Amino acid sequence: MVLPSFSVDRVASGQRKARLESYLSASVWNLNEGFVCRSAISCRSSAEKGGASFYEAQSHMVGPCYDTRVDGLPHRVVVLPMETGEPKQHRTVEQRTQDVLDSGKLTFGQRNQHMRGVTFALRLAFGLPVDADTEHIQFADGSSTHLFNAYAMTNLLLCSAVDHGTAKSRATGIMKKSCSRHLRATLQILQPTLVISQGAGLDNTLSSALGVTRPVAANVAACDLDGHQFVWVSLRHPSRGNWSSLKCAYLHEVVVPAITKGRQLALAGR
């Protein structure tokens, strides 16, 4: 197996992270003004009306090696779940990023089902076998990095609505519709080449938010968001036994071929 040649632009990665922090500070939450999102009242009300616990302003994650190239071609990977489901609020991009990077310090078995699935997704997105015995990629300059440093995680929802004391989602249609504009702004900053969503209930919302132009394969679509083209792979969430283990049939029957195809098309510029 011939491994691809990876390179990284850490400066560009940091600049994107700073731009995203600036956007979220101005449009969602900041320390001085608090929860400034113009949909704050309607989203909270829609969640609490149904008895859900509402956790606001949970931010996004951008790895320090997000801006990578594969054999000279741009390769920026975004993993897109629905919400964190955690009771953490008023997070900065830096704090959210550190949360995710800390998960990379755990052994595979110590991670929760979601992050095990993310591990599988990143192996495939970077051209490694799904059962690879490594979670690192080597750059042409001689440095290396953990896969968790080389992607961004942007939830559809910047706030979580869950059953109290659990991570079971109670997200409302108002929340999904309202947060779509933040997702679009986020992707305009990050300019991904490959987006991997996690959650069967996201397709209707994301088809519009991501600017789908056409399906190209099972679970794979081409997107054009305000002139920026990328590939979207739509999958179930890894939890509940979907694809958090190498024993899961869905992993091998759906995830592997979909991300493999998505990666191929993304690197071909389609």
What does this structure look like?
The protein has one domain: Uracil-DNA Glycosylase, subunit E. The protein has helices at residues 10-27, 40-49, 93-103, 113-125, 173-190, 203-209, 249-267; strands at 6-8, 29-30, 34-35, 53-55, 61-62, 68-70, 73-75, 77-81, 136-138, 144-146, 152-153, 160-162, 194-198, 212-217, 220-225, 228-235. The protein has 270 residues and is α+β, with helices and mostly antiparallel strands. It has 7 helices and 16 strands. The radius of gyration is 18 Å and the shape is globular. A hairpin with a 2-residue loop joins strand 15 and strand 16 (228-235). The two termini are 24 Å apart. 47% of the residues are buried. The strands form 5 sheets. It has a 7-stranded mixed β-sheet, sandwiched between helices. The longest helix has 19 residues, at 249-267.
The number of E-state strands comes to: 16
> What is the annotated CATH architecture?
3-Layer(aba) Sandwich
| β-strand amount | 15-25%
Instruction: Report the mean per-residue pLDDT as an integer.
Output: 96
What is the 3D form? globular
The assigned structural class equals alpha+beta
- CATH superfamily (homologous) name: Uracil-DNA glycosylase-like domain
- Report helical residue fraction: 25-40%
Question: How many structural domains can be distinguished in the coordinates?
Answer: 1
* Radius of gyration (Å): 18 Å
Please write the CATH class name: Alpha Beta
Strand order in the largest sheet: 5-11-8-13-16-15-14
Termini separation (Å)? 24 Å
Tell me the major beta sheet. Answer: 7 strands, mixed
The number of helical segments is 7
CATH topology: Uracil-DNA Glycosylase, subunit E
Extract low-pLDDT stretches: none
